[in-house]
Amino acid sequence: MKLIAEMIRSYSQILKAVAEIEQAGGQPFDEMLKKLFSPEKLAEMRNRVPPNLYAVFAVALFRLTAAAPKLQNPLTLTTEEKRNFQTRY
To answer: Which of 10, 32, 13 has its CA nearest to residue 23?
Structure first.
């Protein structure tokens, strides 16, 4: 029961963070992500940040892209996939 309560607490913290980002940005979170990850913005970022920092960002973006289909409904992942998700992505 304690683990379920912690999971709910964590999920509520994520939702609160998304709401705060939406409030600060003045638009839905998914719209901000679409703009942030547009080819134009990615090219602009590549030219503005140090190469090593952009490389870290690019790897994280590729991992997020690979994980996105599985994140649509994480409860459908197998127990093993759930356990390994953080280290894999």
So the answer is: 32
Which run of H or of E encompasses 85?
A: helix 79-88
Do the domain assignments include residue 44?
yes
For 46-71, how does the pLDDT look when each residue is reduced to its tens digit (9 = 90+)? 999 999 999 998 898 888 888 888 77
Evaluate whether 54 touches 46 at the Cβ level (below 8 Å).
Answer: yes
Q: What is the extent of the structural domain holding 88?
A: 37-89
> Among all chains, which residue has been given the structure tokens 């090593």?
52
Structure token pair of residue 78: 């197998």
Q: Where are the alpha helices (DSSP H) in 26-72?
A: 29-36, 39-48, 51-71
Distance from C-alpha of 78 to C-alpha of 76, rounded to nearest angstrom: 6
Residue recorded with tokens 């409860």: 75
Residues 6+ apart with CB under 8 A from 64: 89
Residue 53 token pair:
């920092």
